[in-house]
């Protein structure tokens, strides 16, 4: 908590009202700490505390749940997140999931949250293998590995691959700046390990 308080103290010198409105009026310092931990776990720099605090002050009025707050902050930091991963280039090479697979994952995540069964193990294994292969191809080509998915499944997928495919960055569609051109280099489906475009043949 001390480090968070220090960050807030520094921000308070320039924006006292913002910090006053955030902690403890809107959120506890423990929740702010959890959001910052979530960001750091995915190697997201937290030096832009003003943007983070402004987003938390606004989003905190709607939700106190750290996951939802983290997602809101990531959208606000989208430009710097993408720049951190991909530099200043106009094009963003991404791996995507087939819409049918995204729907299966979303349904499975919902079922898990309600105490039901999760994703079918064989499908999870095939998806994981495909993601690992696509990541390896991107790394071999000297490109960052980015999996672009719907916001509803981003955090779950990021946790799934964090340790097993550490080079793979999982981003949500709403985190990508409007001025970035998306190039899909691989699309992962529900059946075969490497369904989709090979690098160089992808549609924008």
Automatic annotation (TrEMBL):
InterPro entries: FHIPEP_3, FHIPEP_4, T3SS_FHIPEP. GO terms for cellular component: plasma membrane. GO terms for biological process: bacterial-type flagellum assembly; protein secretion. It holds the Pfam family FHIPEP. The keyword Signal does not apply. Keywords: Cell projection, Cilium, Flagellum. This is Flagellar biosynthesis protein FlhA.
């Amino acid at each position: 908590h001390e480090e968070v308080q220090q960050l807030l103290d520094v921000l308070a010198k320039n924006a006292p009202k913002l910090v006053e409105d955030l902690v403890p009026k809107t959120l506890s310092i423990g929740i702010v700490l959890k959001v910052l931990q979530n960001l750091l776990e995915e190697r997201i720099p937290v030096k832009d505390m003003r943007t983070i605090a402004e987003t938390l002050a606004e989003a905190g009025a709607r939700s106190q749940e750290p996951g939802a707050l983290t997602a809101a902050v990531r959208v606000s930091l989208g430009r710097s997140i993408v720049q951190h991963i991909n530099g200043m280039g106009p094009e963003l090479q991404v791996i995507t999931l087939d819409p049918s697979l995204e729907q299966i994952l979303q349904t499975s995540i919902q079922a898990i949250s309600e105490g039901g069964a999760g994703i079918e193990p064989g499908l999870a294994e095939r998806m994981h293998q495909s993601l690992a292969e696509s990541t390896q191809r991107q790394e071999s080509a000297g490109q960052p590995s980015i999996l672009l998915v719907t916001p509803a499944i981003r955090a779950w997928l990021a946790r799934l691959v964090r340790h097993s495919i550490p080079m793979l960055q999982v981003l949500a569609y709403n985190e990508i700046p409007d001025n970035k051109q998306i190039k899909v280099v691989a699309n992962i489906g529900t059946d075969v390990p490497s369904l989709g475009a090979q690098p160089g043949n992808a549609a924008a």
